[in-house]
Design brief:
This protein is mainly α. It is built from 2 helices and no strands.
Length: 72
């Protein structure tokens, strides 16, 4: 069985600026992932069910992606 090392020092000093940058990056990635998924689902619905076809769905996806760039 492996023994746990005796770490005599407690990590009290946190790098809050690095924590904030990581959290901000995670939030940006989450927002863009959600926007991409919503845009893709709407474009697929337009292409498959509304009769827009392949290029119409691609156009809807491009327009929604561009709009989400300005909204987010």
């Amino acid at each position: 069985m492996a023994k746990a090392g005796n770490h005599g020092e407690i990590a009290n000093a946190m790098d809050y600026s690095e924590h904030e940058r990581t959290y901000s990056g995670f939030l940006k990635l989450t927002k863009w992932t959600i926007a991409g998924c919503v845009s893709l689902l709407i474009a697929m619905a337009a292409g498959f069910f509304a009769g827009f076809g392949l290029f119409g769905g691609i156009l809807v996806f491009a327009i929604l992606s561009l709009a989400s760039y300005f909204v987010i």
